[in-house]
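Input structure tokens:
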């Protein structure tokens, strides 16, 4: 009953936390910025290879997914009025970029990468303008370096560079706070898990939680383009996002290793090992191929999604099987966190593929919300780990207490007859030289009859302490019953 109450408290805490977190997230998403941001969504001319589109509204414009070798040229006119210290932000996906104003190139990035067929930029380019450029012609040229790169444009914006990063942080303050907390907390867990995993294998779960949290935190940083706070190079986002995304699942899968390897039959065990090896091989191949410039990281994205889906199905299947067979099942807290993560993952997966492969434009720029589900999931993993650790601790304490009660004489604190018999059995199994001393306490009956049983008990306890102090360095002292004591003196090893 007490365990059931504890589990109910865990699930209630997670539900309340989820509601509060989502409410805060909704409030922050609706916050308006103080400074003017100019959006350049209308009056574009877009040339895709040999096809020309005029009077384009980028917020409504979509096309078939851009593939490697495609060339996009966007023409427009800068506004007649530009804010102070104007900064143009333009988002690219796996392409080089060149920006010309009035026929003069003011910015370019990734041309050498495109020529060498290497992974190209993925993220925001921050392009300084000058007030004198107001009303001049704008031309942006993109050359795509990966297949299925994008099927719509993120609307370019012009803002005051002085306030750009401050406004960016204000707009993303909740995400930044959550992800910084997630990464810092995970680093602390990583240190603790690394130290204590040498003492107990149970801390491998804590190690998995910390590594998974770090990967998800880094991936979410990239997904929300927060890398611009630390580096102007869009390649940082490109590499970090894909590597952290590909590595993260292996740690959450590793968290369930004990349930998979020791909680069922051979089929469950071998299936788990097969999926684990496949994920490890996938990560190795993706990174090696990227280093050797054979195949780039984005090309493995579909394979990554398939492996994630297989892992989720497998983990769900083993817990459904355990529930049906009435074995130890997933705790309510962990089930809630896992279910929340799956829901957000599926929603994000659908949104991402709709945005990338279809003409359905959900918004001007895809930003993942999976960090919310992962944050809840990491919290549930920590709660589950702490609950299991506490339960294990109390079980060990209870077991040690029962063992002490079974093998300890209640009056003197010495070992009792049962423990002495086990020690003799151990000596018989592993013969060694030893001596046995038998002691009988004189006049105990007379002390009990004349002074009372309390004094008799004190007489026994004081004598037991004398024996214990006398033989503590060379032997084991026990009470066999009444006024009888026994000492086992083993052969001492030479130093």
């Amino acid at each position: 009953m007490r365990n059931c109450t504890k589990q109910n408290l865990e699930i209630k805490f997670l539900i309340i936390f989820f509601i509060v977190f989502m409410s805060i997230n909704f409030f922050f998403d609706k916050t308006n910025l103080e400074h003017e941001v100019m959006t350049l969504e209308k009056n574009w001319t877009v040339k895709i290879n040999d096809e020309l589109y005029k009077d384009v509204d980028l917020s409504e414009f979509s096309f078939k997914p851009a593939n490697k070798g495609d060339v996009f040229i966007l023409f427009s006119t800068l506004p007649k009025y530009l804010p102070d210290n104007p900064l143009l932000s333009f988002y690219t996906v796996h392409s080089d970029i060149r920006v010309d104003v009035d026929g003069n190139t003011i910015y370019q990035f990734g041309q050498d990468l495109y020529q060498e067929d290497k992974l190209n930029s993925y993220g925001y380019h921050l392009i300084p303008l000058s007030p004198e450029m107001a009303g001049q012609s704008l031309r942006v040229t993109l050359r795509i370096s990966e297949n299925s790169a994008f099927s719509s444009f993120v609307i370019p914006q012009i803002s005051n560079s002085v306030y750009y990063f401050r406004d960016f942080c204000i707009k993303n303050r909740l995400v930044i706070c959550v992800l910084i907390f997630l990464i810092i907390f995970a680093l602390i867990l990583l240190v603790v898990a690394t130290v204590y995993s040498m003492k107990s294998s149970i801390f491998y779960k804590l190690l998995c939680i910390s590594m998974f949290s770090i990967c998800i935190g880094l991936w979410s940083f990239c997904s929300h383009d927060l890398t611009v706070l630390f580096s102007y190079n869009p390649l940082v986002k490109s590499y970090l996002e894909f590597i952290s995304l590909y590595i993260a699942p292996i740690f959450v899968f590793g968290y369930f290793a004990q349930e998979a390897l020791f909680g069922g039959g051979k089929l469950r065990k071998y299936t788990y090992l097969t999926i684990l090896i496949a994920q490890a091989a996938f990560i190795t191949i993706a990174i090696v191929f990227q280093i050797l410039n054979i195949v780039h990281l984005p090309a493995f994205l579909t394979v990554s999604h398939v492996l994630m889906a297989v892992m989720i199905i497998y983990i769900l299947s083993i817990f459904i099987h355990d529930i049906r067979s009435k074995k130890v099942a997933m705790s309510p807290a962990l089930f809630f966190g896992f279910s929340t993560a799956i829901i957000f993952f599926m929603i994000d997966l659908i949104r991402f593929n709709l945005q990338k492969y279809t003409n359905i434009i959900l918004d001007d720029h895809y930003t993942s919300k999976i960090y919310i589900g992962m944050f809840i999931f990491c919290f549930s993993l920590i709660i589950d780990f702490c609950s299991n650790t506490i339960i294990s601790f109390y079980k060990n304490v209870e077991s040690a207490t029962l063992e002490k009660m079974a093998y300890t004489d209640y009056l003197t604190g010495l070992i009792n007859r049962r423990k002495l018999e086990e020690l003799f059995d151990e000596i018989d199994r592993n013969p060694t030289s030893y001596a046995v001393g038998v002691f009988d306490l004189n006049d105990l009956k007379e002390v009990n009859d004349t002074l009372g049983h309390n004094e008799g008990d004190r007489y026994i306890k004081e004598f037991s302490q004398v024996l214990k102090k006398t033989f503590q360095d060379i032997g084991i002292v026990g009470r066999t019953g009444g006024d009888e004591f026994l000492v086992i003196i083993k052969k001492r090893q030479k130093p």
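The chain has 14 helices and 13 strands. The longest strand covers residues 86-93.
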